[in-house]
Design a protein that fits this description.
The chain has 4 domains: 30 residues, no CATH class; 101 residues, no CATH class; 86 residues, no CATH class; 46 residues, no CATH class. Helix content is 50%, strand content 5%. The protein has 13 helices and 6 strands. Strands 1-2 form a two-stranded antiparallel ribbon. Helix 2 runs antiparallel to helix 4 and helix 5 crosses helix 6.
């Protein structure tokens, strides 16, 4: 359905004003309900273009698939590590990264949500799960290097490069025209991300791909490689394996900063009735509730406890 020119501006204004519904012609039988986010084929589209809600949904879906396999498969040392890794990639990561490579922008916050689920499975397979805040435990980078697997950002780049090859070879003409279009002399955000991926691929395979030239200067030579040599292109993309990338660089975890919390006013702290000393003080009720559940096995204690 498409609105005519006379009503286009009015409907555009109503959508921006986030009205709950729009009036449609009587033959439609119902009105059009306006929402801020919409789930379509497993993905959530937001009116703001943000990806945080979709990232959280994907993480939840992947965890629902990973939970039954966590101990019986991923943590089972009697099963070969390569088999466990292959099952994790096909059953869990496939849900986590479903069509993520079509996003125009992957924010650091959304990436952290996806990466936390990705690393949880890898740590279970590598037996490097974190059970404390000790600084000498294996980092995420150590775990990926131990397993010989790429970072999640590298996985997304690989899939975006394969999608670009599919579009260049079999993509419909209108889609190719849209991706090639420029607005005020600027490329679209997805094309910019793809060009950055091509540059990273060229750097990784240097000097093998030097004769193609930089992707931003010789795009036609790269397009020819995708369309005329699909098998070689797949091998190049598959060989692109990097365990550490910019979105993975985070501050290393240190000891739990308990002394900083204890500098607060003791009168405003939440006290555990079963512990003594500094270990009994918590900065919030939620922290105290979590402590009671984990260390004392009590869930409804606060119903009868009066501080």
């Amino acid at each position: 359905m498409r609105y005519g020119e006379k009503q286009a501006e009015t409907h555009k204004y109503n959508i921006y004003r986030a009205r709950s519904s729009l009036k449609l012609p009587p033959e439609c039988g119902h009105d059009l309900r306006i929402v801020q986010s919409y789930k379509h084929l497993g993905s959530i589209l937001e009116s703001t273009g943000a990806s945080g809600t979709d990232a959280a949904h994907r993480s939840s879906s992947a965890m629902s698939a990973f939970a039954p396999l966590s101990k019986k498969v991923s943590g089972c040392i009697s099963i070969d590590r390569k088999v466990r890794l292959a099952l994790f990639m096909n059953l869990v990561v496939s849900r986590l990264t479903y069509n993520v490579h079509v996003w125009s922008d992957l924010s650091a916050a959304a990436y952290r949500i996806l990466n936390s689920t990705y690393m949880r499975g890898l740590r279970r397979i590598a037996a490097t799960c974190r059970f404390s805040d000790a600084p000498n435990q294996p980092t995420d980078s150590d775990t990926r290097r131990l397993l010989g697997v790429p970072s999640l950002q590298c996985v997304i780049i690989q899939r975006r490069l394969m999608l670009a090859s599919s579009i260049a070879t079999h993509g419909p003409r209108p889609l190719q025209a849209i991706l090639s279009a420029r607005v005020n002399g600027q490329e679209g955000p997805w094309v910019k991300a793809l060009r950055s991926d091509l540059t990273a691929l060229a750097t990784f395979h240097a000097p093998k791909l030097d004769e193609l030239g930089p992707p931003h200067e010789n795009p036609h030579s790269w397009a020819t490689l995708m369309t005329d040599y699909p098998r070689e292109w797949r091998e190049l993309v598959k060989a692109y394996l990097i365990t550490d990338m910019p979105l993975d660089i985070t501050k290393e975890r240190g000891p739990n900063p308990r002394p900083a919390i204890l500098t607060a006013d003791p009168a405003r702290m939440h006290i555990c009735p079963h512990c003594h000393g500094d270990a009994a003080l918590f900065a919030s009720a939620n922290a105290l509730h979590s402590h009671m559940r984990r260390h004392h096995g009590l869930r409804n204690w606060y119903a009868s406890y009066a501080p």
